[in-house]
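cron nightly-structures :: item 1 of 1
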Amino acid sequence: MERINSVITSWRWIVLSVIAVLILYTIPVGAAGIETERSIVVDGVNRDFIEYQPDGYDENQAYPVLFIFHGHRGNARGAMNNYDLQQLADQEGFIVIAPDSLTPPSHDFVVDIPFVGQQTVFQNYDLTGKRWEIAEMQQPLINRCTSGDINLVEGIVNTLKQEHNIVNSHIFAAGHSQGAVFAYYVAMCSEDITGFWSQSGGLVDILNDQQVLGSISTELRDLIDLVKTFPSALFESIMGIPQEELMYPIPVLVDRDIPAAILHSRVDQVVSYDRSVLLQADLERVGAPVLFTTNPDAFGHGWDKRENDAQWQFLVEQAGPLPERTPPTWAPSIFTVLGPFNSILFEHATESLWTMLFDYDIDEVEQLIDMRYGPFAGFTAIDVEVDWMEPDYFWWTMWKHEDGSTGLWRQRSDGNKQRFVRLQTTPDRVAKDLALDFRGRPVVAWQHNDGTLEIQQLRKSGRVRKVNTLSPPSENAEVISFVSDEKNTWRVLWQLENGDIEVWHVVGNAIANQYTYNSPEGFVAKDLEIGWNNGDVLNRIFWVHESGDARIWRVHPTSGEIMSDFGVDVPNRFQGVEIETDMFDQIRILTVHEYLGISKVITINPLSGEVVGVEKTYQVTE
């Protein structure tokens, strides 16, 4: 990929450079999907909820659903803000639903003990104020799965199934505090829910819970201890329910052995950690799979965002594989950067191939130019470069035809002065990469069948100006990336047959420097770039791990020393494609989602490896 190592004095370039300096560290980070406030009528009452469709949402694809429930006296907006699941939804491709609760009447748990009279065992067992309504504990078990809030969830599910393509096997419930208790209750009582996620919630054994017993008088506690010793028939006649069913909100049902992700802190001062321990034990009693995570003690009573991904992945794995998604019509494939602008080339999956070039500012992430080339039947675009040397800058794209021939397309930024040049084709060579030299002229790297590297310098008209040839470093070595440096100077990245890589610094027909490196285990070299550090030209080698994560080496071009080596966590289901370095030495990685067809650009500090920005994701529409 091209980098221009010269001073550009045009007013256009000066303005762009100033803008880049001002906004370099203000790249927006956040979700990019669509959020809608909605309502539905349930049992004659208007009920509100928030729906979040992930970035790149496609009505033709199938999506999982995650319900998130707010805590006591909370609301849907608070859950959306505090749980911070939108970015995960963008990465994993699922719909988020945040319903709002009402303020139903509160209830005390009162029992009538013979010779003693009525006693309040649990005051406001369902809490007071705005909350989730959970069925009465003293109802027979068969009747305890009824409430207006259960009807709300099922009503929303039915609405979603009418409006979207929903993966019925992947509809999950999640919540915090009383919202976690409600998520569990919904999982027990609604056949639609196939897994739940409980943070700082749990299950309450009314007659044995230390928080409950600690809130009542000593006399009543002694009385409860006595009642617990009664024979089961007598206990049930007094309490109105078998002791083993005296759980809040409901004991785990034998036929609901669905997966559960549980998180809790041992020093939670609001909801006892023991309640999640009881929930885990009761789930395991029926054979349900459980992931129990103990939050750091200092975390206390709250929603731990750091665990979002792990909890989601557990539920998805337990629910089974998601259906294969149809590849997107448009897919981002090639990326280039210079100064404050990025350009992404999108390829269209049709016989008559079209491409779209996105150009957007890193602060506003605004689409500035939308050009479609073609159709070039039988051609595939393999590289894009930007010539900034002229006031009206040009894009160069290199195309490879199915018959093996190669062509270059040149077009001015306003869409005029288009030119397509068919390069001379021979059956013994393949075009590997395109670069622009320091004057904006194209340079094509060819590799012959015998491995020979041919560097073909062209005029802007497409005519051949000069040719340099070099023998390969070893048999079956393959050119991975080719970069133009200065006049008659190039960098080449080779993949060797044994898995190692070799980097060349080429001047004319001679190799000025060459270095061989062992490939890190599990990593494959994808791209080579040039960056500047206090006037020194440094190589950047971009590696991609089989898991999708990335790694970047900064290598001294003369000594070959690896000056820094840092890993980059690529969002789940995204794959690294290539890197670019702008005029300020910032490194940017283009990543592409494996099935949603959206792109995400990650900006890296070249010295520390710190991620300083993640630009919004994009999906091209027809």
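cron nightly-structures :: done
The CA atoms of residues 56 and 619 lie 6 Å apart.
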